[in-house]
Amino acid sequence: MAGSAFKQPVSVLVVIHTPSMRFLLLERVAPAGFWQSVTGSLEPGETPLQAAVRETAEETGILATPTMLRDWRHTYRFEIHPQWRIRYDPAVTHNVEHLFSLCVGEEPSVRIAPSEHRRHLWLPRLEAAEKVFSWTNRDAILRI
């Protein structure tokens, strides 16, 4: 694999919620039972904000403009799970994740990407924080 074929170890986490603080969660196709907010790696030349807009549209069908997203100016650094490291340069072990949030109307229609996600649901803050797999996602939900 050429170096440019590897994913960048920089990503976004976009926590989508309603004004009444119900949070959108997506269940990954694999592994089953892995619930999360919108996530995704940056593409070459892309800023975290551009990635957040793109990933939100790709994973939910929700079209957000850059001004609609809140940049928390907060990052998480975490170890990449061994089963996913094959996507990265062999020397890469950690990822840096940029936190964004998006407040939407009361539970808008969501169009998931069937290649990535099985289903979605809206949950109150504490239930959403308990359901997500990632500690960074849990912290982000509680932070908002």
CATH topology: Nucleoside Triphosphate Pyrophosphohydrolase
User: How are the strands of the largest sheet arranged?
Assistant: 4-1-6-5
CATH class: Alpha Beta
Task: Count every helix, treating DSSP H or I runs of 4 or more residues as helices.
Answer: 3
Following the backbone from N to C, one meets helices and strands in this order, namely EEEEHEEEHH
Percentage of residues assigned to helices: 10-25%
Helix-and-strand structural type: alpha+beta
CATH superfamily: Nucleoside Triphosphate Pyrophosphohydrolase
For the record, the count of structural domains works out to 1
Q: Give the integer mean of the pLDDT values.
A: 94
User: Count of DSSP E strands?
Assistant: 7
Describe the global form. globular
Largest sheet: 4 strands, mixed
Examine the secondary-structure arrangement and name the CATH architecture. Alpha-Beta Complex
Any low-confidence stretches, pLDDT <50, length ≥5? none
- How much of the sequence lies in strands comes to 25-35%
Rg is 15 Å
Ordered list of secondary-structure elements with their pairings:
Blueprint: E1 10-17, E2 22-28, E3 35-36, E4 38-41, H1 48-60, E5 69-79, E6 94-103, E7 117-124, H2 125-131, H3 135-143
Helix pairs in contact: 2-3
Kindly describe this structure.
- The structure is a single chain.
- By secondary structure, this protein is α+β, with helices and mostly antiparallel strands.
- It has a single domain (3-143), classed as Nucleoside Triphosphate Pyrophosphohydrolase, CATH 3.90.79.
- The chain contains 3 helices and 7 strands.
- It has helices spanning 48-60, 125-131, 135-143, and strands at residues 10-17, 22-28, 35-36, 38-41, 69-79, 94-103, 117-124.
- A 4-stranded mixed β-sheet has the order 4-1-6-5. The chain has a 3-stranded antiparallel β-sheet with strand order 3-2-7.
- A hairpin with a 6-residue loop joins strand 2 (22-28) and strand 3 (35-36).
- Helix 2 (125-131) packs antiparallel against helix 3 (135-143).
- The longest helix has 13 residues, at 48-60.
- The radius of gyration is 15 Å and the shape is globular.
- The mean pLDDT is 94.
